[in-house]
Design a protein that fits this description.
CATH topology of the largest domain: Endonuclease Iii, domain 2
Structural class: mainly alpha
Oligomer: single chain
Shape: globular
């Protein structure tokens, strides 16, 4: 029989309250702890896999379109963009209003259309990111983050999904779930969260951990009303443990 749970620690109370934990007080979780979370996620969601698709410009544009919208609306906007313009050079050189009209179903079309054109104009002519495949991850990441409006999450999506490089995208779902599980420091900046999650992820399991944390955030570990009572990870989650008291 299991023993009754002990009183929550101060760190657990801070985690449940959404408070920032000072970096000096934070310790990276042990490899066995990370493997235990990974294994439980595997039991729930399986082991996702996807071969690198080698279309980095598409991935970059898709990631821009995905901001603050659903996957369905993102995909509709992307398909409309590709049907309207035959090449990325045409997207780059088109009147802004035409690009905006094409991607309108994705939301925030005025902002996203300008951002897409800014990024495409910063790339070589013809538009390509294929050269990234030949470099090490840090230089490829730096090249992407130097593009207008491109941050660590977008860069990680391009590197991981296009080339199978070792990076882990940390979006709001991934950061929320990983923080509640005690894998990431509450209140840490996104650059830190990317570095930490990548450092603790077993090599070759970057896509798996990203996708399964994302799935859990969408299905169970919601932002406002996490379904802790029915969560299959609640026994290993300090946030759920504190919320139950």
């Amino acid at each position: 029989m299991g023993s009754s749970p002990s009183a929550p620690t101060g760190a657990e109370r801070d985690l449940a309250a959404g408070a920032t934990v000072p970096r000096s007080a934070w310790r990276r979780p042990s490899p066995p702890r990370v493997r235990a979370v990974r294994n439980r996620l595997r039991e729930i969601y399986g082991i996702p896999s996807a071969a690198p698709h080698r279309r980095p410009v598409e991935e970059l544009v898709l990631t821009v379109l995905s901001q603050s919208t659903s996957d369905r609306n993102r995909d509709v906007a992307f398909l409309r963009l590709r049907r309207r313009f035959a090449t990325w050079e045409e997207v780059r050189d088109a009147p802004l209003a035409e690009v905006e009209a094409a991607i309108r179903p994705g939301g925030l079309s005025r902002v996203k259309s300008a951002r897409i054109q800014d990024v495409l104009r910063a790339l070589p002519d013809p538009v390509s990111l294929d050269a990234l495949a030949d470099g090490p991850v840090p230089s490829a990441r730096a090249a992407l983050c130097a593009l207008p409006g491109v941050g660590r999450k977008t860069a990680a999506c391009v590197l991981l999904f296009s080339f199978g490089m070792r990076d882990v995208p940390v979006d709001t779902h991934v950061s929320r779930v990983a923080t509640r599980l005690g894998l990431l420091r509450p209140g840490g900046p996104f650059d830190e969260l990317h570095d930490e999650l990548l450092a603790m992820t077993p090599r070759g399991q970057e896509l798996e951990l990203h996708v399964n944390l994302l799935r859990h955030g969408r299905r169970t570990c919601h932002s406002q009303r996490p379904a802790c009572a029915g969560c299959d990870l609640r026994w290993m989650c300090p946030s759920a443990r504190t919320r139950a008291r």
